[in-house]
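[audit] Reproducing an earlier prediction to check determinism. Same input, same settings, fresh worker. If the tokens differ from the archived copy the diff job will pick it up downstream; this log only records the rerun itself.
[audit] input (333 residues):
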Amino acid sequence: MTNSSKKPKKSTRKPVGITTHVDLTDTNGEGLWLESGFTAFVWAFAIATAGTLFWMSEVIFKDAWPAISKFGLEFLWNPKWDIGELQFGALPFIYGTVVSSAIAIIIAIPLGLSVAIVTSENFLPSWVRSPLGFMVELISAIPSVIVGLWGIFVLIPFLMPLQQSLFNNFSWFPLFSSEPLGPGMLPAGILLSIMILPTVAAISRDVLLAVPVDLRSASMSLGATRWETIFKLLLPAASSGIIGATILALGRALGETMAVTMVIGNSIQINQSILAPGYSIPALLASQFREAQEELHIGSLMYLALILFAITLLVNAVAVLLVQLIGVKGAKN
């Protein structure tokens, strides 16, 4: 006799023709003309955006061609800029752009990360954290010319005693070897750091908030302190986003025009001291492009614009590669 109380085993075989993993996004919305039309609409805008980039590159390159054909690559390391003799070189402006942006990013990274940590953790009550984060982000809404005026009338007088003290005590050090005149590379870098601070702080805070709370709890349950959890868990987990924020901020620092023009001093001479005046590529374009008459002068300015364009694209490309590299390493770990 068979045991009637024994339950039949459940079949583990899957029905033929049924898949367990279905990606509905693989479909293109067959039968829905509206969805097809919207897809074409989005594709058109994406292609138009990429096409605009190539269009801009073509226009800049075409206008810069007289200077490219005249000076070639020597333009990059030539320090002379003489409109009367029609002799032009980009070195002082590349130097000023890179140094002022480097000062800005060195100051903005620790400040932005500090703001991001304070506003993403519960060190302070929420009624303090929210207004603090909002006020920092509000800096990005201030027009560039207003920031420049603030730099002239407030920041430079405020920094003069510090600059003078650096020169008096550390003039033997090359970075502080020239007597400050007021406007210079250091005020320009500090002003740029204030302008890019919201970018670093806001994106870093959002990335830190995206780290699951369970990771924090697990780390602290194993005996880690709050700061150990922040430095050994949260910041490494959010490193790709923080690097992306830093590169975005660097891109804005490289291209900032009006505020830098008002405080950098606009000196064509290359000086290793950050207390001395300098000149950046955007500042030169803003101050000379309108008055340029000679074809070679206009071409040299467009050549500088092309160099700035290439630097910005290179910085963004490096950022994308870094973020992807960190993402791959994180996935392996």
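[audit] rerun output stored. Observation attached for the diff report: Strands lie at 81-82, 87-88.
[audit] end
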